[in-house]
Amino acid sequence: MPAPAPSPLAIVDVDPGQAPARQEEVLSDEALAFLAALHERFTPRRGELLARRAERRAEIARTSTLDFLPETAHIREGDWQVAPAPAALDDRRVEITGPTDRKMTINALNSGAKVWLADFEDASAPTWENVIGGQLNLTDAYERRIDFTSPEGKTYALKPADELATVVMRPRGWHLDERHLRSESGPVPGGLVDFGLYFFHNAQRLLDLGKGPYFYLPKLESHLEARLWNDVFVFAQDHLGIPQGTIRATVLIETITAAYEMEEILYELRDHASGLNAGRWDYLFSIVKNFRDGGPRFVLPDRNAVTMTAPFMRAYTELLVRSCHKRGAHAIGGMAAFIPSRRDPEVNAKALEKVKADKEREAGDGFDGSWVAHPDLVPVARECFDAVLGGKPNQKDRLREDVRVTADQLIDVASLDARPTYEGLRNAVQVGTRYIEAWLGGLGAVAIFNLMEDAATAEISRSQIWQWINAGVVFENGEKATPELARRVAAEELAAIREEIGEEAFAAGRWEQAHDLLLKVALDEDYAAFLTLPAYELLDRP
């Protein structure tokens, strides 16, 4: 007897007269039926895993420590490899990241980078317009029917196919729902929506182009969450008649708990695994979130003082390279977020030197590639990796058997010789306010103070304010971090923005809402697991 059909999905909270253009192409009956099948089969397990996150966080609060899992020692000690990389993902020396709006789609594909991380997650605010429009833009790009003309009349078009970056698409994390699609049992997880629509519409199309459906998986906190994604992949390939092992996934190791399970995560995804990536802001945010009541030894200094050369960050990146190469996977380095300025050559020169030093360090440490946020940085990063790789596509043969990282080294925040500063508090308020306002307006990648910021920036900003206040930090000017001080600094920043942009632009924006939301998540006694959860309730709403 055949299994009953899944409950149909309803499109809700969308005014039919204001639905995104061509929505019906993306949400065809067949595509919705596929999403319904994913939702019915996998959303209950996703709920169980989110509950497990809370249980693990409670355990960390009790013990203030983490360790490698004894029950998976046999995996770490075993003899196994991930599946070989497909040709399109063998050379990943430079990757560019960005949202999937029409202009960015063309610019990223044309950038000269080997890979484009096409982002439906932290670099994209999940408005319904962005969710649907991003899917259309990727399909249009594969069909070569995409172009763009700016308001100034500048036109953008794709280069020849052999000059385009390979797309690795990043769906939303497990924690976010998509409120516009729901069944009788509730809303569909945003990650299943993003993955499902992209895979349904493009898997065969990509195979026909000599590539495949490749994914970045964000914010995983355990190997069990990687197992869930692997089961999603197996089901999706079977359901649509795509050969098993076609999908490839690169996992962002951007939570402190995942750092203790790198090999286990690769093992769970081994038939579909492509590599791991070393983040920064989300990783630091995760440390604050998990060890927020662990006492002074876990108090982070200003975010810009925590570089990838900090001892505990270096332990994390070296362990990542070692874990990947031991298992035949790519190790991808962190982000160069600097935005070159054509108006200030002095600022440019200093920033580019820092970017170059960062990428040279990564290439020297054994990474196979790295991220940039702007096309002008592609040649800078490429030169650093070319110098090490030469004609080789990667350096997975560098096994880094010299690396020995202990559990304590990964959380040795106290090894940092830096303290929180008053200016760090002000910067956290400034950047947090400006980013949240842009996000509420539908932008996920935002240029702030010559850096390309995404949601991870706002997360570390509000988390540091929360941590400093709750730890009773006293700044170098003698002022103590308190809710009152945070409110004063936030009011001053709001007034400065009003003066900077003018009354009309201020009134047209969502500055008051951004100010209020930042203070809420920074000052509430109950620490919100993700800023984007309360922020999403305000998105697509006046």
* Overall pLDDT confidence: 96
Query: What gyration radius follows from the Cα positions, in whole Å?
Result: 22 Å
Describe the sheet with the most strands: 8 strands, parallel
The stretches of 5 or more residues where confidence is low (pLDDT under 50) are none
Side-by-side strand order of the widest sheet: 6-3-2-13-12-11-10-9
* Secondary structure: number of strands: 15
Question: How much helicity do the residues have?
Answer: 40-55%
Number of helices: 20
Beta percentage is: 5-15%
Shape: globular
Tell me the structural class: alpha/beta
Distance between the termini: 49 Å
Outline of this structure?
This protein has helices at residues 23-26, 29-63, 73-77, 102-109, 128-142, 190-208, 223-240, 256-259, 262-268, 281-290, 311-326, 345-365, 378-389, 407-410, 422-440, 455-470, 483-501, 503-508, 511-523, 532-536, and strands at residues 10-11, 94-99, 115-119, 147-149, 155-157, 166-170, 177-183, 186-189, 214-217, 248-253, 273-278, 330-336, 369-372, 446-448, 451-453. The chain is of the alpha/beta class.
